[in-house]
Amino acid sequence: MRFNWGYGILVVIILFLIGLGTMVFISMREKNSIELIEEKYYEKELVFQDQIDAQNNLAALYPDSLHIADTNGVVFIKLPSKAARVDSGYVEFIRPSDKTKDRRIALHVNESGELSLPKSNFVPGLYKFRIGWSTDGINYVKKKDFIVK
């Protein structure tokens, strides 16, 4: 029996199918669970326009925006200078890799619009930072990626 190009193509196809089957088998055995960032993503999607409006409110009225920093063992958040008075609000730190590390905190700022959170509450790494507050019935929202070192 001679080995010709027809047998070569057959061998390549068989090896490809074996490799593909191996990758499918390994990926199905994966023990890490796939987590959603939001549990109730559909309900949040329905009010997404409200979030866009709140982001536009922040950009239009407070061009100096807000600042977040990781300094001296503290996660420091400073609201825009005109937004020191907050009727209600929240701060969220969402950890995409592990939802057990997510933090949601009520927003209570001092008279100069600052909030300090101990860095010991966080595991180093990437967080999706979200802050939202209401002042005089107007909502403001800011989202950004933040790395705790």
What's the oligomerization state?
A: single chain
What's the gyration radius in Å?
25 Å
The largest beta-sheet arranges its strands as 4-3-6-7
CATH fold description of the largest domain: Immunoglobulin-like
| CATH class categorisation of the largest domain | Mainly Beta
Structural class designation: alpha+beta
Strand content: 25-35%
Q: Mean of residue pLDDT?
A: 85
Report the total helices: 3
The parts where pLDDT drops under 50 for at least 5 residues are none
SSE arrangement, N to C: HHHEEEEEEE
Describe the global form: elongated
Name the CATH superfamily assignment of the largest domain.
Immunoglobulins
The first-to-last residue Cα distance is 65 Å
Give helix % range.
Answer: 25-40%
Question: Would you kindly provide a written description of the structure presented here, covering whatever features stand out?
Answer:
By secondary structure, the protein is α+β, with helices and mostly antiparallel strands. It folds into 2 domains: 1-31; 41-148, Immunoglobulin-like (Sandwich), CATH 2.60.40. Helix content is 30%, strand content 32%. The chain has 3 helices and 7 strands; from the N terminus they run αααβββββββ. The strands form 2 sheets. It has a 4-stranded antiparallel beta sheet. Strands 1-2-5 form a 3-stranded antiparallel beta sheet, with no helix packed on it. Strand 6 (125-135) and strand 7 (138-148) form a beta hairpin. The radius of gyration is 25 Å and the shape is elongated. The mean pLDDT is 85.
